[in-house]
Amino acid sequence: MRPFTLYQIYQQFNRDLIGKDSYRGVTLTYAWLANQFGHFSLGFIPTVVLHFFLSSTNSNIVKFLSFIRINSPVANAEYWSAFVVWGGWILFETYNFLKPLIWKESSRKEALSNGRYIFQPAWYNVTFDTLTDLVYFGIGALAASLICNYHFEMLLGLGGLTLLVAYPAYYWYTTKMLLQNAEYPFQLRLSQWNNSIKDANVTYILEFLKQKQKGKHILIFGSKGTGKTTLAVALATEASIKSSCCSYVTAVKLLSMFYDPPEREYERSLWDWRKCDLLVIDDINPGKPVRSDIISTGLFYEILNNLDNGPNNIENIRDKNIVWVMGSDDPTSKLEEKWKLLLNQIGVDDSNIKVIDLEEV
């Protein structure tokens, strides 16, 4: 179930359609709508153009067809133009889908076993996206056919495709709402992450995404360039796609937000860090080559447990799934031990704390 009311979806849709993007910025939901309009247009425009040539007695296409003894405009050109264009896009998208799966670089056997991926792509999700695009291509082609020459059968087909795309449109539009409300700094799927990591940690991350228990904490350590932030964002992105309310925030920003009243309303934001299911706290410490701690556990706890919101802050940090991007785990500074002790101090059991050190492979 999506964590939105129909009115909230309507509000977002209204904002996407009404207003100037030049000063407000393009949202992910707006980009998705524009993308689907593009798919519709790529079905609509070529169908109109092809119908014009097929139905014209002076067209070069008809002259070419005369070689196979078709000397007059093609009968039912509106049918032929729509299904030729739609069929062409089906062939293209099939190739586009299968190429990276089977033919790209590695052998077919390696590709099918997903040997070049650390995290397996969600092929069912990619398939669903491809099929959604194909339906929009078809809607554009059939709509153009109806304009060229009305047929009741085409009207029925167009109506059927429109009904068929209703759920995919709802799914993908609300998925974009989930992603944009998380405020990720960039877009990345887990299968696109290709740094080094232990197999045991890969297994844990996949299990983490499947489980429903709250209060799980992942501490990601690593120096500059090991992929700490990208792994955290990619992990949370997969959780967003699975309908979880996620939030991304840097540690410095979160420290200031510890003073915000819990009931504060954020403009055009459906949730804040307190109300999300999964929180990514980035840039707690930079890691190598910077060796000193920018945010110590003592400072973090002092601000967390402030006089205004201390108990509420502690409860939300303790009982929420959180990915902590920590920096380097230098043995001399004992960062892992310090942060685990801090989590223990606010009530997190050791069994709910997982350390992933990206420098250990």
Care to describe what's here?
- With 361 residues, this protein is of the alpha/beta class.
- The protein is built from 15 helices and five strands.
- It has helices spanning 6-17, 21-24, 28-54, 60-65, 77-103, 108-112, 123-148, 152-164, 166-182, 199-210, 228-241, 251-257, 297-304, 310-318, 335-345; strands at 217-221, 246-250, 278-282, 321-327, 353-357.
- Strands 2-3-4-1-5 form a five-stranded parallel sheet, with helices on both faces.
- Strand 2, helix 12 and strand 3 (278-282) form a beta-alpha-beta unit.
- The longest helix has 27 residues, at 28-54.
- It is elongated and about 85 Å long.
- The protein starts with 5 loop residues before the first helix and ends with a strand.
